[in-house]
């Protein structure tokens, strides 16, 4: 479990294996908004100086309002992956962890590397006093499974009776903010919420995320990350975009998501789940279909733990949809 996990976005590696230049490929292997928003103006000061307190404060206050976290100021971090690596430090060495799976593999890898006992569970009912920390990705990656706020709230209260920590990863939650647990559970002493910035805004290269948790937990994360963990330009962009009107972004993602589903269905594929930023397909010959798409210079996400699954991200436009459909229709099973 300590081996590196192959994620989406490996266009260079795919091009080396199947040919072509990276720019020739249609990358549908990630769950990122394919229409990145315009980057707001960034002051020279943000580039020139180390991130000052006023930049951090502006980003945190904007995140508080955007995520509706009440009095709690979310902590900016250099991508949520950075704090996934730190999660094992929240509990004692050897503590038992429950992860609702299958899900984003870096959680299991981080805890396994730290010597924790891990239970991969499929339902909230399997969680009990043995579990010092529980990870729920909501909506889940890659199948899009979601849990109602009331069920997660009940779980948090139940876990509080044995001082258990509930971690909820809402990396794909921006498109449907009404399903976020933050307004309900932001004040809970045993709840930690991760939010991704780059996926929804289409700026994954910025490497920015936020943690919403009690102040004492945020202080620990901040100390572990060290000074100046998030760049001044990233903080500046966050402060601007989190206060902007995101209605058009959500509408565009919805349109692109519907177009993807229509394309997959027209290509004869069975959609097994997903979120607004990707669709999961169940296909008996997923490996062969993946290779066929690669030969057409189209990269989608395959899974070593689920050989019948392929995850398709959104194309940026109708031309990308047409290119995908042509490749699907040329597949000879």
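Q: What amino acid sequence fits the structure above?
A:
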């Amino acid at each position: 479990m300590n081996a590196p996990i192959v994620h989406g976005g490996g266009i260079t590696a795919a091009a080396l294996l199947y040919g072509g230049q990276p720019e020739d490929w249609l990358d549908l292997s990630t769950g990122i908004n394919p229409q990145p928003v315009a980057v707001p103006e960034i002051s020279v000061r943000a580039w020139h100086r180390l991130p000052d307190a006023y930049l951090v404060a502006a980003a945190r206050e904007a995140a508080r309002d955007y995520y509706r976290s009440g009095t709690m100021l979310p902590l900016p971090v250099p991508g949520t992956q950075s704090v996934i690596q730190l999660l094992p430090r929240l509990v004692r060495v050897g503590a038992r962890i429950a992860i609702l799976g299958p899900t984003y593999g870096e959680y299991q890898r981080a805890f396994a590397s730290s010597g924790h006992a891990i239970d991969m569970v499929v339902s909230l009912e399997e969680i009990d006093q043995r579990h010092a920390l529980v990870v729920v990705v909501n909506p889940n990656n890659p199948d899009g499974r979601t849990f109602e706020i009331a069920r997660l709230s009940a779980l948090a209260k139940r876990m509080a009776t044995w001082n258990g920590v509930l971690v909820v990863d809402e990396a794909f939650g921006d498109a449907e903010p009404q399903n976020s647990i933050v307004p309900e559970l932001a004040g809970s002493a045993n709840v930690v919420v991760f939010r991704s910035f780059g996926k929804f805004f289409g700026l994954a290269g910025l490497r920015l995320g936020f943690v919403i948790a009690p102040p004492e937990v945020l202080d620990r994360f901040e100390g572990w990350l060290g000074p100046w963990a998030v760049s001044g330009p990233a903080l500046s962009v966050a402060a601007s975009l989190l206060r902007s009107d995101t209605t058009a972004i959500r509408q565009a993602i919805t349109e692109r998501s519907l177009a993807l589903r229509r394309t997959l269905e027209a290509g004869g594929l069975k959609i097994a789940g997903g979120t607004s930023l990707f669709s999961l397909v169940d296909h008996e010959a997923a490996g062969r279909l993946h290779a066929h798409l690669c030969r057409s210079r189209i990269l989608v996400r395959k899974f070593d733990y689920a050989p019948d699954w392929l995850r398709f991200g959104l194309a940026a436009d109708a031309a990308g949809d047409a290119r995908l459909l042509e490749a699907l229709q040329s597949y000879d099973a």
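Q: And what stands out in the fold?
A: The chain has a mean pLDDT of 95.
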